[in-house]
Amino acid sequence: MGLLDVLFGRSKPVRPDLDRLFALPSAAITLQAAAGLAPTGAGSVCFASIEGGAFTRIRQEVEALLGADSERGGGTVEFSQDDYGYSWLLSRRAPDELPSLVNDLHAVNATLRDSGFGPQLLCSLVAFRASGRQPLALVYLYKRGTFYPFAPLPGQKRDNPLELQVRAALQDDLNIEPDLSRWFPLWGAPGL
Q1: What pTM was estimated for this model as a whole?
Q2: Long-range residue pairs from 60-63, CB within 8 A, at least 24 positions apart, any chain
Q3: CB 101 within 8 A of CB 39
Q4: Residues 105, 27: contact at Cβ < 8 Å?
Q5: HSE-up of 96 (CA within 13 Å, CB side)?
Q6: pLDDT for 94-115, tens place per residue?
Q7: Less CB within 10 Å around the terminal CB: N or C of the chain?
Q8: For residue range 151-173, what is the model confidence (pLDDT) as tens digits?
Q9: How many CB atoms lie within 10 A of CB 177?
Q10: Of 163, 167, 139, nearest to 151 (Cα)?
């Protein structure tokens, strides 16, 4: 970062650290104690669409990587595209297999990054739910290197009090995004 960057208020972007995902299992324990939210076993990776043969190759690599585990009784993997044209990979595991789910998400992200598609990575999320309540996702923003909670309600509304409660509970466990305007809604995200 140079002198002009300092004068004009520009900052160097945070380099994505995929290993931050490994903090989720311990944060899940805090979340269970503070808000009664437990993992559902669903997690997703969102990335900008990759066209043609490159996407086919990436998809085959990911399916081979995660599918081998599925054959041994592991989770399932699904690809989809949302209304905005973004691609999603959804991994499902048993709710008590959060570390394995995090490993799946990390493997997908690392595969995309190592194949030269790191700039297309947007976010990952892991879903939580309390008995009789709407779901909550902990979302990891790659370009910011931070997490934020997203609690959707019917009618494209959000449970802001729950999101703020989760932020307060997890501030010592995760690098929470301080700018609330970057807590983007992920309506219809696979796994929620």
Answers
A1: 0.86
A2: 61/111, 61/115, 62/89, 62/107, 62/108, 62/111
A3: yes
A4: no
A5: 0
A6: 999 999 999 999 999 998 888 8
A7: N
A8: 999 999 999 999 999 999 999 99
A9: 20
A10: 163
Pairing of strands 146-150, 136-141: antiparallel
Please answer whether residues 117 and 50 qualify as being in contact, where contact means their C-beta atoms are separated by less than 8 angstroms.
Answer: yes
* Residue 20 token pair: 């931050």
SS3 sequence, the chain?
Answer: CCHHHHHCCCCCCCCCCHHHHHHHHHHHHHHHHHHCCEEEEEEEEEEECCCHHHHHHHHHHHHHHHHHHHHCCCCEEEEEECCCCEEEEEEECCCCCHHHHHHHHHHHHHHHHHHHHHHHEEEEEEEEECCCCCCEEEEEECCCCEEEEECEECCCEECHHHHHHHHHHHCCCCCECCCHHHCCCCCCCCCC
Which domains can be identified in the chain, with CATH numbers? Answer: 14-182 (3.30.70)
